[in-house]
Amino acid sequence: MTTNRIILAAGGTGGHVIPALTVSHELKNRGFDCKFLSDKRGLKLIDHISPKQKASNVFAASPVSGNIFQRLVALFKISLGVIQSIFHIIHFRPFCVVGFGGYPSAPPLIAASIFRLPSLLHEQNARVGRANLFLAAGVKTMLLSWKNSKPIPPNVSVLLTGLPVRSAFFELPNYQRKKKFSVKSPCHILIIGGSLGAQMFADFIPQAISALPENIRKSVIITQQVCNEQLSELQRKYSRMSIRHFCKSFFTEIVQEMAKADIIISRAGASSVAEVAAIGRAAVFIPFPESLDDHQVYNARSLTNEKAAILLPQKEIEADPTILAKHLLSLIEDPKKCQKMAERVRKLAHKDALNDIIASVKSCQKLRSGGVK
């Protein structure tokens, strides 16, 4: 068994892949050799974000959704994925396997248990995913991102590490409030979300902004992420309201955009929630209503239960956009409230998440119970 090789496995979405790549990048900085296993979606994302990362495809699918035929096909794919993973372990000879959730992480972790290799499992969301619930019993330790994560599988060793985010978020100074928001000292509102989130936000958020009093609208600057096909129409909406605005489909310097913000409106994906906490800003979370097992709601509650953010269901805002307007107004009229919320949320951030995860990985080096000799 080699002493510096690690296999990382994750599902094909950004919520799984990006934290895994963050860990992989830091492990490589510390002299470890990392290989990534994911599905085709994950490989495309890895190639886009980190093209030099060693990565291979494994078959996987969800065995708990669809009709009986689809479930049987999914089990067959996972079985093929386990066989693929066995060959990767034999060839690469890692000292441990680290899973980051999603069904493509299942075959490598199952293969690790066959070889009695130490393995770890990281859960990004406050609502533990179905794949991780199934896999937790076979790993050395389950690493959690949020204090009140649930459900926790019985008889499983768990460790609260937090979700790794870029150090740039923590390096920025604490939020400095303005005495009063005005035309000369405007309230910067940043609106961000994935492609689906941006589509819906472009519809109902301008309606909420239009419900603000005219003098308040003059003291606001909107920066919003929006799909390309909606960009022109959204700009026209804000122009008709005489709202100062800056709209783009993608922000390359998201840390700087969040640093300028006084208020952030966002979906409640695990990374988004962790980044808001890390940078410390007042935030309104509007969870994606079709997220699996309402995991975005649970993510947001990790902060809102501590009065460190605001949670608003999308259906309520769509029915009555003035609900969002009232919450925004309460923040814009009271800058002290923005500061208090920013202070509370930053205290909930896990600054040492990356170091704690890597410490858990390194602890697996001391185990010699299995592995490919």
Offer a few descriptive terms:
six-stranded parallel beta sheet; seven-stranded parallel beta sheet; 16 helices; 2 domains; 13 strands; 373 residues; elongated; alpha/beta
Explain briefly what this protein structure is:
The protein contains 16 helices and 13 strands.
| Spans where pLDDT lies below 50 across 5 or more residues | none
CATH architecture of the largest domain: 3-Layer(aba) Sandwich
Instruction: Tell me the number of strands.
Output: 13
**Share in β-strands:** 15-25%
Q: Which geometry do the CA atoms define?
A: elongated
CATH H-tier superfamily of the largest domain: Glycogen Phosphorylase B
CATH class of the largest domain: Alpha Beta
**Helical coverage, percent range:** 40-55%
Topology-level CATH name of the largest domain:
Rossmann fold
Let me know the largest β-sheet. Answer: 7 strands, parallel
Give the termini separation: 5 Å
SSE order in H/E notation?
Answer: EHEHEHEHEHEEHEHHEHEHEHEHEHHHH
In total, how many domains does the architecture comprise?
2
Average residue pLDDT: 92
* Total count of helical runs of at least 4 residues: 16
Helix-strand category? alpha/beta
For the CA atoms, what is the radius of gyration? 22 Å
Reading side by side through the largest sheet, how are the strands ordered?
A: 3-2-1-4-5-6-7
